[in-house]
Structure formats: C-alpha cells, structure tokens
Amino acid sequence: MTSTLAPFAWSLLLAAGVVVFSIVPLGAARSQANFQMADLGAPRAMFERLPAWGKRAAWAHQNCFEAFTLHAPAALLCLVAGVTSPVAIAAAWIHPLLRLAYIGMYVGNVPPLRGLCWAGALTCSGLLYVEGLKALLGS
Q1: Domains (ranges, CATH) in the chain?
Q2: pTM to 2 decimals?
Q3: Cβ atoms within 10 Å, residue 11
Q4: Residue 1 · residue 85 · CB < 8 Å
Q5: Spatial distance between the Cα atoms of 29 and 22, rounded to a whole number of angstroms
Q6: SUPFAM superfamilies, from UniProt (predicted)?
Q7: What is the pLDDT of residues 37-78, one digit of tens each?
Q8: Picking from 4-13, 35-44, 81-90, which range would have the lowest pLDDT averaged per residue?
Q9: Which of 52, 106, 125, 135 could form a disulfide with 81 if both were Cys (CB 3.0 to 4.6 A apart)?
C-alpha cells in the first residue's frame, strides 16, 4: 500500500475502533444500573434503569454503528480508487476524531457541540465519497 492510501486504511481502522470504544461509557452506565447476569438475556430491557447519561451513552453507541456503515464504504472507495486528494486525506483523519468527540459530547449532554461533531463527521464521509467517485470516474 502506498503512503498516500494509508490514511484511508487508518481511517477505516480508527472508525471501527471508535465503535468498539463506544462500549466503554455504555458498560459504565450498565454497571451503575446494577447490571446482573440475568440481564444478559435481554440487555436492552434494562434501558429504563440506566441513568440519563447512560441512556445517552446507549444512543451514542447505536449512532456509532450508523456512522460506521456510512464511512466504511467511503474509505474503501478511496482505497480502491487510489485517491490522493489532500482534502480526502484530511477528511479521512478528521472523521474518527470527530466521532470520538461526538461520544463525549453526547454522553456529556452538550447538544450544540454534539451536533457539530456529527455534521462534521458526516461531511468528512461525504467528501470521501465525492473524491472517491471523482477518482474512479477520472474527473
């Protein structure tokens, strides 16, 4: 893999890592809600027992999967198309950072910054699609 394509592979790996990391605050909230082995039968049923920040952690965790399903194909498209655009490379690095900040803003209940992180990360994924398609179509 050339060094110009490495940011897209790293972005994919880091974005997956953010999804895995999003389990940490959710796990802490479940612990605070007195998670027991019996809850393994229906872990979503304990949602109402979670503290307010724990509910936000659960929502952030779910949103991480949604964001990953949008970002992963964009990063793969850039890898396959051989994108070298500095804009795409910057977007690839910025996306996982914004998604990580998104989790903190969601759990910490800071809606304006959460919204900015969400929109910024979505824009990064969009830029990867645009740059990937431009490279693939030869524009």
Answers
A1: 6-137 (1.20.120.550)
A2: 0.91
A3: 28
A4: no
A5: 12
A6: MAPEG domain-like
A7: 777 777 777 888 899 999 999 999 999 999 999 999 999 999
A8: 35-44
A9: 135
